[in-house]
UniProtKB/TrEMBL annotation:
Protein name according to UniProt: Cytochrome c oxidase accessory protein CcoG
Domain called 4Fe-4S ferredoxin-type: residue spans: 255-283
NCBIfam families: ccoG_rdxA_fixG (TIGR02745)
Organism: Dechloromonas hankyongensis
Coiled coil: none
Length: 470
């Protein structure tokens, strides 16, 4: 061995922890699963962009009004005190995601994830402006001339307009959209509204236009912990190696089996249509988002070569190993884990529905006036002053009757009724009087009953303390 060779062996090999990105030009494909993806993209965006313009009772139907600290969801108004419902929504979302993942893998990622949805929208614009995959690759290699600047400029302008409209729509759910439009038109847009429109729009432009699969591969935590929720009976995109190998091109009319070939013709289309650029024939990979584009394109290739469909298909590890048919696969889906997730989700949804249906649209906070602990009235009775914060959560006004008990002879001094506006907070000062010998010296528990005059079912009972001096 020469000295140079020995020196080369002594130098440790350099290993890079960063992979240089290769731009992916995903080929468009139409098929059964692509039609489902288009349907989900259109449906989610009709809800997102269109929900902003729905009206309900003369107001925006869906409005998370941060200034007023009220969330309007059609006919229901949620207040900060209703934060339990937000917690329930997050729990339901988490369990629903666990259930879907345990049954069908990253189905949400492939069809309804915002990153997937907006990347798909941006790719539709890209295909419309620049052309198909081959045209885009050719344009990338072309020198920077007037034509390339015009095409790329048109694409980015459309991307920016869509991104800004997306940011505007998001902010329109937190600031009344009519007010937001007027502020944009008059140039009086607030700093926070301006920030969030450009912040959300900017990240939409960045993630869906440039980073795309990088978000799924390196930024999304779901891709990293999905394996914890998978099991051998989870539906995933699979390639059948027993049927497909040995892969290779063959001439028309040649008996593939006699020539030692499997059904895979090694056309590479499954890689070309993949939005994350993986080869599904290498097995399950965390980059796979379960969009099934490879299933659509492979089925079309099988049709052209006269082979049965399903070389690449939705299946499970157990089904591939045990050669289970579709009926057996479906039977394995109903397993203890799925039943547990379903039961928990059903219980939580049932409880949320019950509490919402029986939710009393009245909340009351009682604060005793601490500046005057107790005072003696002209007739010798003892008075305590209270401030009632009456929160009417319905979008119609109510008149409430107030009564008090807990001490003998306790009564409201003055008018015991108060009017509260629709979906508003009303402060009401009242005086409670009791005989001087009605209780012990110091703090005594009493209760306020607040009942709607026009609907006796709307009522609350709140506890307070009445102070008797020595």
């Amino acid at each position: 061995m020469s000295q140079s060779e020995a020196r080369a062996q002594e130098i440790p090999a350099q290993v890079s922890f960063y992979e240089k990105r290769k731009k992916i030009h995903a080929k468009g494909i139409r098929g059964y699963f692509d039609n489902w993806r288009i349907t989900l993209v259109v449906l989610t965006q009709v809800i997102f962009y269109g929900g902003l313009w729905l009206n309900w009772n003369g107001r925006q139907a869906i409005l998370l009004h941060l200034v007023e600290r009220k969330f309007y969801i059609f006919g229901v108004v949620f207040w900060p005190q209703d934060v339990i419902y937000l917690a329930a929504l997050l729990i339901v979302s988490a369990y629903a995601l666990f259930l879907v993942t345990a049954v069908a893998g990253r189905l949400f990622c492939g069809y309804a994830c915002p990153q997937t949805v907006y990347t798909q929208l941006f790719m539709w614009i890209e295909n419309w402006v620049e052309g198909d995959r081959n045209a885009r690759i050719k344009l990338d290699k072309a020198p920077l001339d007037t034509r390339k600047i015009r095409i790329r400029g048109t694409k980015h302008l459309l991307w920016l307009l869509l991104s800004l409209w997306t940011g505007f729509t998001l902010v329109g759910y937190f600031t009344p959209v009519n007010e937001l439009i007027n502020n944009v038109r008059t140039g009086n847009l607030g700093p926070w509204e301006t920030f969030w429109i450009f912040f959300y729009g900017g990240f939409t432009y960045l993630f869906a236009g440039f980073m795309r699969e990088q978000v799924c591969k390196y930024m999304c935590p779901y891709a990293r912990f999905q394996s914890v929720m998978f099991d051998p009976d989870t539906l995933i995109i699979t390639y059948d190696p027993e049927r497909g190998e040995t892969r290779g091109a063959r001439k028309k009319g040649v008996d593939a089996k006699a020539a030692g070939f499997g059904d895979c013709v090694d056309c590479g289309l499954c890689v070309q249509v993949c939005p994350t650029g993986i080869d599904i024939r290498n097995g399950l990979q965390y980059e796979c988002i379960g969009c099934a584009a490879c299933v659509d394109v492979c089925d079309q290739v099988m049709d052209k070569t006269g082979q049965p469909r399903g070389l690449v298909r939705y299946s499970t590890e157990n089904a591939m190993a045990q050669h289970l048919d579709r009926k057996a696969i479906l039977a394995h889906i109903v397993r203890p884990r799925i039943l547990l997730y379903t039961a928990i989700l059903a219980v939580i949804l049932g409880l949320c529905a019950w509490f919402l249906a029986h939710r009393i649209p009245l909340k009351v906070d009682i604060i005793r006036d601490r500046s005057v602990l107790a005072r003696e009235a002209d007739d010798g009775r003892i008075e305590n002053v209270y401030m009632l914060q009456i929160m009417n959560t319905e979008e119609r006004p109510h008149r409430y009757r107030i009564s008090v008990d807990g001490l003998p002879g306790a009564e409201i001094a003055g008018n015991p009724e108060v009017d509260a506006g629709a979906a508003g907070l009303t402060s009401y000062n009242t005086v409670v009087r009791v005989p001087p010998d009605a209780g012990k010296v110091g703090s005594n528990p009493i209760h306020f009953d607040i009942v709607a005059v026009d609907n006796p079912d709307i009522k609350v009972r709140e506890k307070a303390a009445f102070l008797l001096p020595q």
